[in-house]
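Data availability (excerpt). The following record was deposited with the supplementary files.
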Amino acid sequence: MEDFSAWKALLRRYDVFHLHWPEHYVVHPNSFKAVAGTLVLLSCLSWLRLRGTKVVWTVHNLAAHDRRRPRLERLFWRLFADRVDGFLVLTEAGLDQARAHFPKLRSLPGFVVPHGVYHDAYPNDVTRSEARRQLQVGQDQPVILFLGHIAEYKNVPALARAFRMLDDPEARLVIAGRIASEQDAKAVRDAAGLDQRIQIRFGYVAPEEIQLYFNAADLVVLPFREILNSGSALLALSFEKPVLVPALGAMPELQAAFGPDWVRTYEGELTPEELRVALEWARRPQRPRPSQLASFSWDEIAKRTLEAYVEIPARSDLARVARR
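Predicted structure:
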């Protein structure tokens, strides 16, 4: 296995070229690099397939989160889908949604390979008491956490607004992570207002510090405006923290996999009442451990990915013959 580079793609022969976020180039801040990168990627795909390489795509999103170039993006997806031989999705719901959104995938082999959990990926040896001391929250205070990249689609200002209306002087909200733009930072600050119960920590969170946030929290809230899959939710579950997510994309399927003790969903906009009820739910004693994490192990994911690599060449060639 090797990381991608255009030179490798041009000069070497590969059995499989596996992409995860092909829209990466489309949303580049620099317009020239966005167009050039997109053209290079599409050209590489065409060249690789001419030489017998199978192109496999893991569908994380149905569209770029940053819609800064909608016309280029529409053209890109149309040309990209023509160059795919098979695809992977993280959930059964994702399989149906991918084929509905990209009609060209309907005739191609698709496989469900879940997102893995993060056990042992990050240090986890800090106690709840020490984590709360370092984050300067009380030992008995209810703590809600949002941790991750702060961008518009994550809808973090809605969480801050709902929390401000929560009638609990002891509750605390911690928002931590890198910001996508100063505009996103301003939106979060404006939504938080002067509420002293809200702690905002913009910036990169080092791997050894992630445990502080999760071990201090009672509830992790991910108030996405739009979402198909969520690695953030699985990260929280890996630290054995209950999560509150909207009933969008594959989130109901995540709830079915882990059960209502660990994943709670809501419809529509996040409200103070939903936060209140979810916080009570999260602080309920004697929660069973999430035994389902074993089925999301990376060994199992590797096995299923390799099976897809083996099966895609034959099935994609048959699909291509059938279309002629």
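Summary of structural features: The chain has a mean pLDDT of 90.
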